[in-house]
Recover the amino acids of this structure.
């Protein structure tokens, strides 16, 4: 066919709506795609389908009454959300927390990080087409973690475990044996995932060099968490601005080289391994004491605004709280990691195919609960 | 650098910056916001990361809080500026830091602050045809919002 | 008189074949669910019958009773006809599959050519489903599928020709008879042909890792998004019948067909066929999916040259 003929073929751009109900947008996200055949010309995300106006509700609840709401932000990693919020309030009140409570908080937060990364890895593999097998294996491991949490605080998904000044219950008897057994059980399983997925030819060709996020773009868009580390920036709040007792433990920060989807997946697998190390060290060094709360439940802090951020599995979760001396906060702003992570995606997917768009979206590991609040 | 050192550097260039007592915030008037941000982004302060934009409805004025961090130099600063309720316009920082794009859209959606020269100022969390700005203090529907039982 | 008897015999044979197809599809659906469940460390159907054997019958009854939804705006004739165009060629291939020494409907002396010709018609049905559904996702699925199936026809046909050359015949029974000494899989050039055949056949029937036309995570359900009830059941049965057919052809061409000691030939044939079906299912639940352009690249740049070279080598070996 010579070139004059191809100019006369009439082609049209194709507008397709991916979502809000779609098997692989993680939650209710609507992506408006302009397609040219298989290639994405433009991508516009529409969010807000899960907006529950948590920040407005916070102005009418006491500080303790708001803790269950923070569970529902990033509902897969509830312990980390609770932790961020209570630590922000404790910073406002200058409260001291007992050593045992701090160690318990670290153990529980790291176990929840493992559970959250398992979901990320399993659903990423499912989006690429390994239809359900890695997902079932990851969920089987996650069941063990949820059983441990069930015994600690009675819930499997939204824990409501942290309190301002400590935690709600102490560890029951025998739970440290269970946690040690879990760490021993989990280590070979992570090697299993490596063998099944990480170096598989099809997996590599689907995710290597797809959705490369350059360093400067990531920092400018304020991308945080494993996505930032995959682009080559060695930044982790647990090491760079340590909170709780993280400075007492030895662990590495995995950093990627290229910033593509395979790197983001591999970093999460490595982080599972590092979290297992932290849990092992913490459970071995758990001090005695009473971690439950001794201060009352009503607090009346007064401050013109403090900001505190913690390292969530998905990035940096920040709370900006303004108190005016009454029992409810005057303003509570939640800075969620997935909100800023999602903002990068329209720029990354220009020129990719639909299959690659699904891969990039899965590798960023966003969660609509915390985007929409 | 420590926060007071950062403040000293900013004060040297912009004499209208004031330090807020009690916190690490730096108050600047809204007209110099864009210049201050450009200055902060370049070396030696190297604030490469706009982390969070918040607005607080202080009833007679609107307070805007910008949280900036530097990954290279490991320090952070909080910029605050005040807007009067009749003139809720401020320059947009989306050319300086790309994360400002969505963060400013959220502030516009919830508070009604208009950011000048923003590439795409639409609502982001509420539906596109929503009336009113929910997080303002005078937006009250008592039948919808229950007070806490203590 | 004889022609009426012949006609009645033809009807009886047709009914037996259709019955076998239905039963085999139901068995394969149960087998897939059990195999996938055990690979994923769970159990699968356990309640309906012993270990869930009657689950397929329950599913069939459910699909029969389901409401047949026809979306407004579909191209009526094309949309309605598509499931038939997909299923009928698969059923037609059963005419030449040798189940035993004389258990074959009709031993055409152009058996392989007949198979290749008839099974190519199926792709039109998929494309009709994609177009007629009036749905952008289905259209994408249909177009991808057409490209995929046409590309993988070539290595498939080339690998089957190698066997025909070795046996000097296109007839299925003669190929089986030529393997009564030792099976074709033991020749190295035919092992290569078997590998190429298996990969191409997986792509032909849209199974993972080549199931892009029905890629659930990208296109909801691809070309059969808009089908429900019995029409969906026809696509489903068509897919599992195709799986059986390609395994049966692989058994006949490479693994000796119904040859084997002691047990009756039919049993040997079924054992070998279901063994290859198991391998296909195992691959489905282990690997992720290949992307469209990588799939085409693989067919044209890797499989086709390998099968052409294999053809040349076989020719040289036979003429020596």
């Amino acid at each position: 066919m010579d070139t004059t003929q191809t100019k006369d073929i009439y082609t049209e751009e194709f507008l397709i709506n991916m979502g809000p109900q779609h098997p692989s947008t993680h939650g209710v996200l609507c992506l408006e795609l302009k397609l040219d055949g298989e290639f994405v010309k433009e991508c516009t995300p529409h969010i807000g389908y899960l907006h529950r106006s948590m920040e407005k509700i916070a102005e009418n609840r006491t500080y303790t009454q708001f803790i269950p709401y923070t569970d529902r932000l990033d509902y897969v990693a509830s312990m980390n959300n609770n932790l961020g919020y209570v630590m922000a309030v404790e910073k406002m009140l200058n409260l001291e927390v007992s050593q045992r409570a701090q160690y318990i908080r670290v153990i529980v937060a790291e176990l929840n990080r493992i559970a959250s990364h398992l979901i990320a890895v399993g659903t990423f593999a499912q989006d690429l087409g390994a239809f359900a097998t890695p997902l079932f294996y990851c969920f089987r491991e996650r069941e063990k973690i949820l059983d441990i949490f069930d015994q600690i605080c009675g819930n499997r998904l939204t824990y409501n475990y942290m309190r301002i000044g400590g935690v709600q219950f102490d560890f029951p008897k025998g739970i440290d044996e269970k946690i040690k057994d879990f760490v021993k059980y989990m280590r070979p399983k992570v090697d299993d995932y490596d063998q099944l997925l990480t170096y598989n030819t099809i997996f590599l060709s689907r995710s290597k060099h797809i959705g490369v996020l350059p360093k400067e773009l990531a920092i400018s868009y304020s991308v945080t968490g494993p996505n930032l580390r995959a682009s080559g920036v060695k930044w982790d709040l647990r090491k760079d601005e340590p909170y709780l007792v993280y400075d007492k433990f030895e662990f590495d920060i995995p950093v990627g080289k290229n910033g593509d989807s395979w790197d983001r997946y591999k970093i999460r697998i490595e982080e599972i391994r590092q979290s297992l190390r932290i849990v092992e060290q913490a459970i071995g060094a758990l001090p005695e004491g009473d971690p439950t709360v001794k201060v009352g439940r009503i607090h009346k802090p007064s401050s013109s605004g403090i900001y505190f951020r913690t390292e969530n599995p998905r990035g940096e979760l920040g709370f900006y709280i303004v108190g005016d001396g009454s029992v409810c906060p005057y303003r509570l702003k939640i800075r969620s990691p997935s909100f800023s992570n999602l903002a990068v995606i329209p720029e990354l997917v220009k020129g990719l195919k639909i299959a690659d768009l699904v891969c990039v979206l899965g590798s960023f590991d966003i969660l609509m609960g915390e985007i929409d609040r | 650098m420590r926060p007071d050192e950062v403040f000293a550097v900013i004060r040297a260039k912009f004499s209208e910056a004031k330090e807020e007592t009690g916190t690490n915030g730096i108050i600047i008037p809204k007209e110099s916001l864009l210049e201050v941000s450009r200055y902060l982004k370049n070396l030696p302060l190297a604030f490469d990361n706009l982390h969070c934009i918040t607005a607080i409805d202080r009833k007679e004025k609107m307070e805007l809080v910008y949280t900036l961090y530097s990954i290279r130099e490991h320090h952070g600063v909080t910029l605050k500026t005040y807007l009067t309720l009749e003139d809720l316009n401020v320059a947009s920082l989306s050319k300086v830091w790309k994360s400002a794009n969505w963060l400013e859209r959220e502030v516009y959606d919830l508070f009604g602050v208009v950011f000048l020269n923003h590439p795409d100022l639409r609502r982001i969390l509420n539906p596109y045809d929503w009336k009113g700005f929910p997080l303002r203090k005078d937006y009250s529907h008592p039948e919808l919002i229950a007070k806490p039982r203590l | 008189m004889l022609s009426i008897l012949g006609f009645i015999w033809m009807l009886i044979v047709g009914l037996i074949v259709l019955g076998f197809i239905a039963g085999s599809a139901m068995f394969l659906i149960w087998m897939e669910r059990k195999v996938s469940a055990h690979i994923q460390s769970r159990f699968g159907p356990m309640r309906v019958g012993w270990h869930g054997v009657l689950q397929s019958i329950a599913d069939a009854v459910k699909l029969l009773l389901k409401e047949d939804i026809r979306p407004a705006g579909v191209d009526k004739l094309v949309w309605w006809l598509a499931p038939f165009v997909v299923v009928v060629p698969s059923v037609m291939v059963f005419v030449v599959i040798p189940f035993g020494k004389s258990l074959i409907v009709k031993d055409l002396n152009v058996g392989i050519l007949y198979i290749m010709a008839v099974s190519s018609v199926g792709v039109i049905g998929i494309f009709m489903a994609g177009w007629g559904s009036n749905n952008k996702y289905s259209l994408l699925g249909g177009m991808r599928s057409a490209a995929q199936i046409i590309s993988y026809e070539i290595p498939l046909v080339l690998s089957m020709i190698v066997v025909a050359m070795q046996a000097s015949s296109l007839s299925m029974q003669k190929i089986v008879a030529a393997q009564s000494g030792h099976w074709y899989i033991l020749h190295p050039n035919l092992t290569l042909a078997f590998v190429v055949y298996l990969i191409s056949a997986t792509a032909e029937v849209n199974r993972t890792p080549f199931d892009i036309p029905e890629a659930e995570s990208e296109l909801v359900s691809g070309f059969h998004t808009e089908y429900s009830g019995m029409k969906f059941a026809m696509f489903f049965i068509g897919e599992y019948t195709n799986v059986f057919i390609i395994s049966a052809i692989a058994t006949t061409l490479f693994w000796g067909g119904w040859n084997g000691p002691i047990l009756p030939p039919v049993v040997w044939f079924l054992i070998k066929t279901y063994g290859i079906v198991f391998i296909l299912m195992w691959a489905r639940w282990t690997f992720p999916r290949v992307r469209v352009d990588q799939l085409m690249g693989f067919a044209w740049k890797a499989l086709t040259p390998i099968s052409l070279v294999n053809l040349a080598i076989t020719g040289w070996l036979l003429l020596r």
Summary: The beta strands of chain A are 14-18, 30-36, 39-46, 162-163, 166-167, 302-312, 315-324, 331-335. Confidence is low (pLDDT under 50) at residues 1-6 of chain A. Chain A touches chain C at residues 14, 16, 22-24, 38, 125-133, 136-137, 140, 196-197, 200, 202-203, 205-206, 353-356, 358 (CB under 8 Å).
